[in-house]
# Entry
Amino acid sequence: MVRAVPADDADHRSACRRVPWQSQIGKLNVDDNGQTAMRYQVRGIPTLLLFKGGQLVATKVGATGKSDVQKMLDEHVA
# Structure
């Protein structure tokens, strides 16, 4: 099960404020949710999955800086 990031998590909360559309950020423990990890072919940790309209549109594996996340988001804003 994906759990929402706590509202008191300042980094994630500020990221949500910068996104000009409705957004939701969550975390998934792949050890406890192996089926979901297999479904999305998670091969490394951390993995960032970006969904738009319920569809997976981008994947980034490995440590990701703010600028890389922003580029990823900018490519899929419409």
In short: The chain has one domain: 3-75. The mean pLDDT is 78.
